[in-house]
Amino acid sequence: MNKNDKELIYDLLKKADAHITGFVSETFKQNVNFEDDVLVTETTASSSPSATTVSGGPEPVEITTYNSPATETSGLTLTDLYTKISRCTKCPLARTRNNVVPGEGVENPDVLVIGEGPGYDEDMSGRPFVGKAGVLLDKMLAAIGLDRTKNCYIANIVKCRPPQNRDPLPDEQATCNAFLQAQIHILKPKMILCMGRIAGHKMLETQEPLNKLRGQIFEYHGIPLMITYHPSALLRDESLKAPAWQDLKLFRSKLTELKNS
Predict the structure, then answer these.
(1) Which end of the chain has fewer CB atoms surrounding its CB within 10 Å, N or C?
(2) Pick from 253, 254, 233, 258: which is nearest to 243 by CA?
(3) What is the pTM of this model?
C-alpha cells in the first residue's frame, strides 16, 4: 500500500471515531508518518505500573501510576454526551435496556464515583445507584462529607443494565468506555472513587484481586484514584464494612489534602 492510501484510510478512521464518540481520541491526534510499502505498527505504553510511596493516612500510601491513552472532548458538553449515550446501540445491552443510565451529579465535582453498571432499579429509573446499594452508597459518601447533589458525580463503567445483573462483558465495557472517558474529561474531578472489582479493573486495566488494590492511591491521567468495596458487597458481608471505612477515611484524607493545596 502506498503512502497516500494509508493517509486516506487513517483520516477516514479518525473522522469515524470522532463522529461516534463525539471527541477526538489521543490515538488519532498523534503525528503518524506513513511511507510506501512499510508496515506501520503502533506500540502501546507498558501496562506495568511505576510506584512511589507518599504519606496520606495512618501509614505510608503507595501511589501507582498507570499509563493509558488519554482523550479530550473538543467542546463536547454533558448534554451532548447524554444525547449520544441515549441513542447508542453499539452493544447487545441496548436491546434489553429500559433506560440508559448516563450518570448524575454536579459538574466539576470534587469526586467522580464509578460503579460497574445499572441494576434493576437504575434501569427502570434512568438514575445510577438508587436501589438498596445506592442508599448505602449515599450513606458512605455522607460519612466523608460527600453528596451527589453537592460535590459528587456518579457514573458506571457501562450505561445499560446487563441482563439478570450479570457482570458486564469485556467487549461491553470496551464499547462503553469512550463515554466514560468523555465524562472524566468534561467533569475534571479532583479524585475518582471506584466501587468494586469491575470498576477498578477497567479503570486500571488490571486483573489484580480487589484486596490487593484497595487501601492504595493510584493515579489515573494525573487524577488520584482509589478502589473500595461495592456497596452490594457490604450488604452481603458486613465484615467488609470495617475495611471499607478505612478506605473511605484514607480517601477523605487525600481529598482534603488536595483541596487545601
Answers:
(1) C
(2) 233
(3) 0.75
User: Which string of DSSP letters, residue by residue, matches 123-175?
Assistant: HHHS-SS-SHHHHHHHHHHHHTT--TTTTEEEEESSSSPPGGGPPPPHHHHHH
**How many angstroms separate the CA atoms of 39 and 29, rounded?**
20
Write out pLDDT tens, residues 47-66.
334 333 333 333 444 444 44
Judging by DSSP bridges, how do beta strands 111-115 and 104-105 pair with one another? unpaired
Q: Which residues contact 68 (CB under 8 A, 6 or more apart)?
A: 45, 205, 221
Are 75 and 155 contacting, i.e. CB atoms less than 8 angstroms apart?
no
Pairwise CA distance, residues 105 & 251, whole Å: 19
pLDDT-derived band at 76 (thresholds 50, 70, 90) equals confident
What does DSSP say about strands 111-115 and 223-228: parallel, antiparallel, or unpaired?
A: unpaired
β-sheet bridge partners, residue 191: 111
Among left, alpha and beta (phi > 0; psi -120 to 50; other), residue 222 is left
CB atoms within 10 A of CB 78: 17
> Across-strand partners of 52?
63
Instruction: Average the pLDDT over 82-108 and give the result.
Output: 96
Q: What is the mean pLDDT of the chain?
A: 84
- pLDDT for res 49: 42
The rounded distance, in Å, linking the Cα atoms of 256 and 18 is 37
Which three cell numbers mark 41?
Answer: 505498527
> How many other C-beta atoms can be found within 10 angstroms of the C-beta atom of residue 194?
28
Dihedral pair phi/psi, residue 71, rounded to 5°: -135, 165
Q: Give strand pairing partners of 133.
A: none
